[in-house]
Amino acid sequence: MKLAGTWKKISTATCDQAYPDEIEFFERPRYLGKKGPHQGFILWDAGSYEIVQENQVKISTATDEQVLYQFSLSGDLLTFIDPEGCEFKYQRVK
Q: What does pTM read for this prediction?
């Protein structure tokens, strides 16, 4: 599964406010998160990621912690589930 590309968050759950409004995953594998206009601290600011299984990705967070997330990719829809069970979705923009 390839995460490379630019993604815009389309979910609006209260629990997903700590995740960036937009994120770009690079091939390297690095990522860069961008805050939305009303966001404060975001967990995914910039760092690395590693796909460890078909549906699991380890992402380095703003606190330098390596966190394991469940994810699925269906066409241009990318869904994550964080360790607390919060589900949030991104749509590919490029």
A: 0.93
Given a contact cutoff of 8 angstroms between Cβ atoms, the answer to whether 86 and 69 are in contact is no
Q: Is the pLDDT of residue 1 over 70?
A: no
Q: Kindly report the three-state secondary structure assignment for every residue of 12-33.
A: CCHHHCCCCCEEEECCCCEEEE
Fold held by 5-92? Lipocalin (2.40.128)
List the structure tokens of 76.
Answer: 């241009």
Closest CA to 19 of 94, 92, 72, 88: 88
**In 35-86, where do the E strands start and end?**
46-53, 56-60, 66-74, 77-81
Distance CA 70, CA 73 (A): 11
Q: For the chain, what are the domain ranges?
A: 5-92
